[in-house]
Prior knowledge:
Largest sheet: none
Helix content: over 70%
Number of helices: 3
Structural class: mainly alpha
Order of helices and strands: HHH
Number of strands: 0
Distance between the termini: 14 Å
Oligomer: single chain
Amino acid sequence: MKMDERLGEDEDIAMRGLRYTREQFDEILGQTENYVREKPGQSLLYAFVAGYILNRLPIGRIISGVLRLFMFALKPAILIYGASKLYQAIDEE
C-alpha cells in the first residue's frame, strides 16, 4: 500500500470520527436542553450543587498534578514516537 493511499484512508477515518463525535455531542446537547425545559427547578439545583462542588475542589492542584504527570510522560512518548518513525523509515527501504 502506498503512502498516499494510507493518508487518504487516515483522513477519511479522521473525518468520520469527527462527524460521529459532532453528532453525539449535538444529541447530548439536545437531550440536555429538553431536560432543562421539562425540569427547570431540578436542573437549577443540579447546577448549583455541581458549582459548589467544583468551587470546593482544589482545581489548581489537580491541574498542576496533571501537567506534571504529562511532562513526566512526554519524554518517553517522544522517544517511542521517534523509534517507531525510524522503524517505519527503515522498513520502507
